[in-house]
Amino acid sequence: MTDSLFDKLGGEPAVDVAVDIFYRKVLSDESISHFFDDTDMDEQRAKQKSFLTMVFGGPHEYTGKDMREAHAPLVEKGLDDSHFDAVAGHLQATLDELGVPEDIAGEVMTIAASTRDDVLNR
Amino acid sequence: MATLRFDGGEIPCTGDTTVLDALLEAEQPVAFSCKTGMCLTCLLQATEGSVPEKSQKGVKDTLTAQGYFLPCVCIPEEDLELASPNDADLFSRAVVTGKEMLSPNICRIVMEPATPLYYRAGQFLNLRRDDGLMRSYSLASVPHLDRQLEFHIKRLPRGKMSNWICDELATGDSLDIQGPNGPCFYLPDRKQGNMLLIGNGSGLAPLIGIARDALHTGHAGDIHLYHGSRHVTGTYLHGELLELESEFVNFHYAPCLSRDEPPAGYRAGRAEVTAIADFPDLKDWRVYLCGYPPMVKSARQKSYLAGAAMGDIYADPFDLRDLRTEPRKEE
Ligand code: HEM
């Protein structure tokens, strides 16, 4: 039996470590931080955990429609390809920082890329 | 959709509407304040039906056991039978035993509760005047050091309660108190760890409680307290804090002025900016933030970015409702 992508990455504990690295990067990036600048930081962080679980190939129940709905208010505020690329960049940098091997990181980035049209509501 | 039964009527609650909003829409005379699940002003009792766990966060277990919950953060999943809170469950009396102005805008009141109150330094109580007007105020006292309850009340421009307390409340008067509430208090499990306390205005009240609690129970790590104010007169416990600093080597006090030219011993700039510039690496620190909500929000983000774990940041944004231009429904 081969391990799933999520197992190879270290499962939920890996998400817990990754979320702070990732969320700090996003909040420090002024080109996108306003999207994440919630009063309720705990809730925002929880949502970013859902994001990471999803792209790490972990268990989730989000559909393409859910992704559209979750990001529709952001698209209304101007979310576009440049923001998507910035988030993807921070995801890649997070994986690098965690020392995730290139082939596994590649799988993560492929999942993320596959959501682009839904996230941008196209 | 859930149906709310309250005061003989049936009120529909649809979609993402909270119980509080449904009641307000139906013009029910319910008290509320922060609408974010913090202040506990809107507490109601569900006598039938169960409420989501999230809506009981921060409510004492003796009260949740009786079905008390926070309507402002409750999106009901089933029909509920609601009852107004039973006064005796929530409130007790306290008499004012001392009052003094600490600065032109901040008043210290000391109260003696009719029955002893078990609380942690840094928590807050709701004070209620006899006509029902109620506001949240942080405790500045420490249960094992001070016999009485102490509050620092800041006079707000249109603040009904704060102006009444500053101008009219007198020694010997009684008020209703509800509490203690709030998760912002000292935790004795990491005695070696450093603590960063940042407050502005009367946000100093809970912080001095937390600092004294920690210091007097043998906290070994450093405790840095940054108090922000625009003017020198706003650093209303300057003398007491300098004394505390000379009494405990691990306590450090930094008064920060964002408007006035800083005299010797003061720092120039906003408290949260100065604090994070002094301590850019907050990994493994505990951080306490109290006061004006925009400061708390910005300090929370800065602390997190400086490496503090989200769970180690305790925030108490003061609900300055009196500053709202909208009149309160129930007033
Ligand atoms: C790379 C592809 C992306 C995926 C797979 C993804 C996934 C997710 C997921 C699963 C959630 C949680 C939804 C929920 O539980 O409500 C979420 C929320 C969120 N995402 Fe994304 N996301 C992506 C890209 C982006 C981008 C590019 C931005 C903005 C620059 C963004 C900003 C947000 C924000 C602000 C939220 C929270 C929304 C709220 O507060 O309800 N996401 N995302």
Describe this structure in words.
- Chain A is built from 8 helices and no strands.
- Chain A has 122 residues and is an all-alpha fold.
- Chain A has one domain (12-33, 41-55, 64-119): Globin-like.
- In chain A, helix 2 crosses helix 4.
- Chain A starts with a helix and ends with a helix.
- In chain B, 20% of the residues lie in helices and 30% in strands.
- Chain B has helices spanning 19-25, 61-64, 87-90, 160-167, 204-216, 238-247, 271-278, 293-305; strands at residues 2-6, 9-13, 44-48, 68-69, 80-83, 91-103, 106-113, 124-128, 134-138, 149-154, 174-181, 195-200, 223-229, 251-257, 267-268, 286-291, 313-317.
- The model of chain B is unreliable at 322-331 (pLDDT under 50).
- The complex binds protoporphyrin IX containing FE.
- The site of protoporphyrin IX containing FE has 21 residues of chain A, from helix 3, helix 4, helix 5 and helix 6.
Name some characteristics of this structure.
heterodimer, A: 122 residues, mainly alpha, Globin-like, 8 helices, globular, B: 331 residues, alpha/beta, Ubiquitin-like (UB roll), Elongation Factor Tu (Ef-tu), domain 3, Rossmann fold, 3 domains, 17 strands, disordered C terminus, binds protoporphyrin IX containing FE
Please write out the topology:
The complex is a heterodimer of chains A (122) and B (331).
Chain A: H1 5-9, H2 11-28, H3 33-36, H4 41-55, H5 64-76, H6 81-97, H7 102-114, H8 116-119
Chain B: E1 2-6, E2 9-13, H1 19-25, E3 44-48, H2 61-64, E4 68-69, E5 80-83, H3 87-90, E6 91-103, E7 106-113, E8 124-128, E9 134-138, E10 149-154, H4 160-167, E11 174-181, E12 195-200, H5 204-216, E13 223-229, H6 238-247, E14 251-257, E15 267-268, H7 271-278, E16 286-291, H8 293-305, E17 313-317
Parallel strand pairs in B: 1-5, 12-13, 12-16, 13-14, 14-15, 16-17
Antiparallel strand pairs in B: 1-2, 3-4, 3-5, 6-7, 6-11, 7-10, 8-9, 8-11
